[in-house]
Design brief:
Length: 382
């Protein structure tokens, strides 16, 4: 009885979707509020960006020394209506012309996800539009297909402030997870190291995020001045761990503060060298685990023998040193490395809209506007 009801519901949803997509041009509005950026964009089925808007909370969180979930939630609430309206106006598209609305519902900060989901619920019901719930990391993985033809399957390394994973993308909603972060993400590690080094006080770094500050100062640093152990050297899988590395760096900072006779919060003379060594060790860890994943994929025939591809995406993928490290690995193993431009690596509404386009095209995960959806703060790729 239960199965027959579920089947009937799915058939109703499919019929609803077919009626709508047949009568509407295939335009998708994407909404992103998973962390500290409020983004929206309208795309057509070719991936053309018709209009977009983005409100960044970076300056606010720099002043508070990190993202405070309740502050992020309030800023999303204050800006989401304006951001969505701007994206629609810039695209010249009215809500009635949309084929569907896609919104991030997992994973991310619970309070931030809740704002986007509640706004979308009201929007799809007001305009009677299909709703496409989006997995944030799936959107990062697929963004590259909006920019150039990349066929499935391909290997993807997603690295950001909140996530780190390796997976084989076999389809729009089909991912084989090979490895993930066991504790904290690389972006989170770099941000915390930057805060411990008080880089916000550095004249060159006052307006930069922690990861950006580390990358900038590392250019003038000598990474060989400090030797940090690459994590998980004896663990033979493709997972990541960064908490132990951060502890090593913190202990080194404390030692140098004692040697220089300064208190915590004072800029160290060797700050550039510590930044360079920290960045190098994060890059080395990512490169080594990715190398293991490539060898595993080759041994098990998970990638095409001709022109296998590694896609590097997520906010940390904007780091040029990390890109160079992955370039060395892919050149050595015969893979083609593809990185989206930096503006598409960080969170944005464009990638959510494109994920919606891909799912709409294949008829996957499209819901009627009255179907209840819950956000999921912690959710790995399937």
């Amino acid at each position: 009885m239960f199965r027959s009801k579920v089947k009937a519901l799915r058939l109703l949803q499919l019929g609803y979707t077919l009626r709508h997509t047949a009568s509407c041009s295939r335009l998708v509005l994407g909404i992103e509020t998973s962390c500290d950026d409020t983004g929206a964009a309208v795309l057509d089925e070719t991936g053309a960006i018709l209009g977009e808007s983005l409100h960044s909370q970076k300056e606010v969180h720099l002043r508070t020394g990190g993202i405070i979930p309740t502050v992020a939630q309030q800023l999303h609430r204050e800006n989401i209506e304006r951001v969505v309206q701007e994206a629609l106006e810039r695209s010249g598209v009215a809500p009635s012309q949309l084929a569907a609305i896609a919104t991030t519902v997992k994973p991310g900060l619970a309070l931030s996800l809740g704002v986007g989901l509640e706004f979308t619920r009201q929007l799809v019901r007001r305009h009677d539009k299909p709703f496409i719930p989006i997995h944030h990391m799936e959107a990062h993985a697929l963004t590259v297909r909006m920019l150039q033809p990349v066929s499935f399957p391909f290997l993807v390394l997603l690295v950001s402030g909140g996530h780190s994973l390796l997976a084989v993308a076999r389809g729009v909603d089909d991912f084989l997870l090979l490895g993930h972060a066991l504790d904290e993400a690389p972006g989170d590690t770099l941000d915390k190291v930057a805060r411990r080094l008080s880089l916000v006080k550095h004249p060159q770094c006052s307006s930069l995020s922690g990861g950006q500050a580390i990358e900038l100062l590392a250019r003038d640093g000598d990474r060989t001045k400090f030797s940090f152990r690459t994590p998980m050297g004896q663990t033979h899988d493709c997972c990541f761990s960064f908490a132990g590395l951060r502890n090593q760096i913190t202990m080194t900072i404390m030692k140098k503060e004692a040697e220089e006779g300064v208190e915590e919060g004072t800029l160290l003379k060797c700050v550039n060298d510590i930044a360079a060594a920290a960045q190098h060790t994060v890059a080395a860890h990512l490169a080594k685990r990715t190398h293991r994943a490539i060898l595993f994929c080759k041994a098990n025939g998970l990638l095409p023998p001709s022109s296998p591809t590694l896609v590097l995406s997520g906010g940390v993928a904007s780091n040029q040193y990390i890109r160079k490290a992955l370039t060395i690995v892919t050149e050595m193993t015969g893979l083609h490395l593809i990185c989206p431009p930096a503006k598409f690596c960080t969170d944005n509404g464009v990638m959510i809209a494109w994920n919606g386009v891909e799912r709409l095209r294949e008829g996957k995960g499209i819901l009627a506007p009255d179907v209840d959806v819950c956000y999921e703060p912690r959710k790995n790729l399937p």
